Amino acid sequence: xxxxxxxxxxxxxxxxxxxxxxxxxxxxxxxxxxxxxxxxxxxxxxxxxxxxxxxxxxxxxxxxxxxxxxxxxxxxxxxxxxxxxxxxxxxxxxxxxxxxxxxxxxxxxxxxxxxxxxxxxxxx
Length: 124
Known about the structure:
The protein has strands spanning 3-7, 10-13, 18-25, 34-39, 46-51, 58-60, 68-73, 78-83, 92-99, 111-114, 118-123. The protein is mainly beta. It is built from no helices and 11 strands.
């Protein structure tokens, strides 16, 4: 069955960096686009970044452009989110997800498998 497992979260001071990983299994990884989402209590889940199946197309929410970089290694069935210049407002639970359509999307309705999440906390 499809499994997505995030890792790499933690606590960091503002201005610091973290790299999240998402290890996938149970399907042909290289044929699906993937995405990173985040959610804080009481708020809607927000699409942060998405990457095409081949890795040549990416898209970011405006608030992380220039600070976050999404990438994937199809040989390792793993996706990454490099987060630099972190801000307190980046604090959230971060989830990776597998897409269901043809084009990368930041809409959570375009994803059907989710990981369990990894917490990122940025202190000021």
